[in-house]
Amino acid sequence: MMNKILKQLSKLGKAMLIPIAATPAAGLLARLSAPDLLNLPILETASWVVFGMMDVLFAIGAVIAYAKTKDKTTPILGAVISLSVFKAVLTAMNETISMGVFAGIVVGTVTAIIYNYSREWKTPQMFSFFTGDKFVVTLAPIAMIPLGIAFSYIWVPCQAGLNSFGLWIAGAGALGIFVFGLTNRLLIPVGLHHVVNTYIYYELGTFVTASGEVVKGEIPRFLAGDPTAGLFLAMFFIPMMFGLPGACAAIYKTAKEKNKAKTKSLMTSGALTTFVAGITEPVEFSFMFVAPRLYAFHAVLTGAAGAILYLLDVHLGMSINFCVIDFVLNFNMGTNAWIIIPVGIVFFFIYYFGFKFMIEKGDLKTPGREDELEFQEDEVSADEMNIKLEHTNYQYMAKKILQNVGGKENVEEVENCVTRLRLELKDGSLVNEENIKKTGAKGVIRFSDTSVQIIIGTEVNKVAKEFKAMLDE
C-alpha cells in the first residue's frame, strides 16, 4: 500500500514540474517590484496573480499525472471549471473555509478519475457530441457540487484543530517554535500552513505604539518596533537564504551526467528565487512528492533552525517575504540578527551533505535522476538486433497485441526500447503469449507479475506508435 501511495505521489511530483515552471520568474518580479525596491504596483499585481493560482496549478498537475490519455487538454479544461465550481460551493456553504492548494489536488485527481471512466461510457446517439473525451467537462463540474458540500463539513474540524494547535505553539517556548517550523513546512503540500501561520503572524501578542495604537501578531508588532517580536519569524531566513540553495546544489550534484545542464538550469532559478524573493515553491515542489523523506528532512531542519535562533535570542521579521532583501532592510530593527549568517552557512552545508547522502543512499528520483525506460546493450543479443518483421501491417499487429494483453483497460504504461515493446499491466495473467507470437512477435519475456516485454525487432517503434494511438482512442 505504501509503495502504491509513493508511486502516485511520484507521478504528481513529476507532473507538477510543468505548471510550477511559471513560479520562479513571477516570484522574482513580485519581490523586485515591491514598494521598497522598484515600486511598480502594476508589475507586482501581475506577478502575484500566479501565486493566487496555486490551487489551479495543482489541479492541472494532478490531471497531467493521473488522466490516462496522451492529450490532456479536455480533462484540464474540466478541472479548471470544476475547481471554480468546487470553491464557489465551499464559499456558499461556509465562507470561512480555505483549503488552499489541497482543493486543487482533490479537484484535479477527482476530475482525472471521472475522465478515465467516463470517456468509455455509452450514451444515446443524440448526446454523442457531449460524450467520449468531452464528457468530463459536463460530469466533473456537476460532481463538484456534492463534493464541495461534503468538504464544507469535513474541513471545519480540520481547520479548527489547526487553529487550536497554533494557540498551543505560541506558549511552548523553543519546543513550540520547533513544532511551528516543522508543521509550517509539512502542511505546505496540502496548503494548510496558512491556517497555523495566521494566528502566529497576525494574532500572537500585543504591542502599543508611541501613538497609542494597539497592534497584534508577530509581523505587525515587529514592523511597529516591538523588540519582543520576531522570535517566530527569524527561522525562515535560514532555509530560504541558505538551506534550500544548499539542497539545490545537492540535487544538481547528484543528477545524471546527461541531465546536469537541464538540472542546473532548474535548480539555479529555484535557488535564486528562494534567496532573492523568499519564494520556495519551485524548489520544494521539485522534490516534495518524488522524495518525501527529503521534504521531511527539510521540515525538521526548519524547526531546528527556529529552536536554535530562539535559544540565541534572535529576533527578525519581514515586510514582504523571508529573503535577502528583507534581511538587509530589516536588519537594524532586529535583535542579534547577525547570528543568522553564521548559522545559515552551517545549515547550507547540512542541507547540501544531508540531501546528497540521502539521494545517493536511497537512489531517490530527484530532478535529473528520473528512471528512464531506455535500451540497454546487455539486454539484447546481436540476433535480436537483426530481427525483421515478415509484414508491415503495424496497426493490425498492435491491435492484436492489445487484445492479447487484456485490452487497454489492463495497460498501465507502455514504452519501447530498440527491439522490445515494454508493458506495465494491471494483471499479467491476461497475457496470451501464444497469440502474441502469431502476430509476428518473436517472444514474450515476463519480468514480474505485471511487467512484460514483447520482442518485435527494430520496427518496434512503428508498432508502439500504433499501440499508443489505440490506447488514446
Automatic annotation (TrEMBL):
One of its GO terms (biological process) is phosphoenolpyruvate-dependent sugar phosphotransferase system. The active site is at residue 417. It comes from the Bacteria. Pfam families: PTS_EIIB (PF00367), PTS_EIIC (PF02378). The chain crosses the membrane at residues 12-34, 46-67, 96-115, 135-155, 167-187, 229-252, 294-312, 337-355. GO terms for molecular function: kinase activity; protein-N(PI)-phosphohistidine-sugar phosphotransferase activity; protein-phosphocysteine-sugar phosphotransferase activity. CDD domains: PTS_IIB_glc. Residues 3-371 form the PTS EIIC type-1 domain. It is found in: Cell membrane. The keyword Transmembrane applies. Keywords: Cell membrane, Kinase, Membrane, Phosphotransferase system, Sugar transport, Transferase, Transmembrane, Transmembrane helix, Transport. GO terms for cellular component: plasma membrane. Its main location: membrane. It is a multi-pass membrane protein. Residues 395-473 form the PTS EIIB type-1 domain. PANTHER family: CYTOCHROME C-TYPE SYNTHESIS PROTEIN AND PTS TRANSMEMBRANE COMPONENT. This is PTS system N-acetylglucosamine-specific EIICBA component.
